[in-house]
Amino acid sequence: MRPVFLVLALLSVACSKPDAPAKTGQDLKAVAYFHVDPVTAGSVSGKITYDGPKPQKAAISMTADADCERIHAGHPAYDEPVVVGPAKGLANAFVYVKSGLEGKRFETPQDPVVLDQHGCMYTPRVFGIRAGQMLDVKNSDPVSHNIHPEPSNNREWNQQQSPQAPDLQHKFPRPEIMIPVKCNVHRWMHAYIGVMDHPYFTVTGPDGAFELKNLPAGNYTIAVWHEKFGEKTAPMHVAASQAGAVSFTYP
């Protein structure tokens, strides 16, 4: 009878081993990203203009930091929140699709977006990034800076960066329009970040022109944001394989 007891004991031990962890729905279901059909995709283009008095440039006093003054070698530096081109084009306007893409999930780019601190100024002043995409912050100056984004829908971030220090890296997990950025060391430094959950956004240059390419056909709200003039929106229908147009003017 002893061999029978031995077999039963071994079976008991084998049966008492913990089960392998069950696969969750996330493990079994791959993320389904939306891919635009290039044959039926459309686009939206237009221009952002400024119709008002000529903006005055405000000279920046950098006397609080002699190293920042030396970088500019005696030439004045200006704070220019309003930059207007020769044909009334408004620069640094953030244009994006505000609604119409609900339910579509787009793959996050692997390449980082770069924000440089150069000449004791942020470059670029206005830019967009995808939610979850890496932001690389460089310090090209011989002085220390303190980058300080102040979001309302993401966690606040405040970090010092010495000269020649490695790039700082950060991600914003949630969409937000727009995140102001300041430097706690140099009060004149400003930047603004648009965090998007889709790829349909851009920033205008001095000509004020923009184009949002490769849009799936549908009904959208197109928005433009400017740090001094706020936001404007307009409805837009994008037909399959067609190019739509919409423009905005700030008085």
Name some characteristics of this structure:
5-stranded mixed beta sheet; 251 residues; globular; mainly beta; 40% strand; 4-stranded mixed beta sheet; 19 strands
Give a description of the structure.
This protein is mainly β. The chain contains 3 helices and 19 strands. The chain has helices at residues 2-15, 25-28, 66-71; strands spanning 42-50, 58-59, 78-79, 94-99, 113-118, 121-123, 126-130, 134-139, 145-149, 159-161, 168-171, 176-183, 190-196, 201-203, 209-215, 218-226, 230-238, 243-245, 248-250. The strands form 5 sheets. It has a 5-stranded mixed β-sheet, with no helix packed on it. Strands 1, 15, 18 and 19 form a 4-stranded mixed β-sheet that branches. Strand 16 and strand 17 (230-238) form a beta hairpin. It is globular and about 55 Å long.
By DSSP (H or I, 4+ residues per run), the number of helices equals 3
Beta-strand fraction estimate: 35-45%
Q: Order the strands across the largest sheet as they lie in space.
A: 7-13-12-9-10
Q: H/E series, N to C? A: HHEEHEEEEEEEEEEEEEEEEE
Distance between the termini: 99 Å
Taken from the alpha-carbon principal axes, the silhouette is globular
The total of beta strands comes to: 19
How much helical structure, as a percent, in the residues?
under 10%
Main β-sheet, in a few words?
A: 5 strands, mixed
- Mean pLDDT across the residues is 91
Oligomeric composition of the shown chains: single chain
Low-pLDDT regions? 1-20
Q: Which structural class fits the helix and strand makeup?
A: mainly beta
Determine Rg (CA atoms, Å).
26 Å
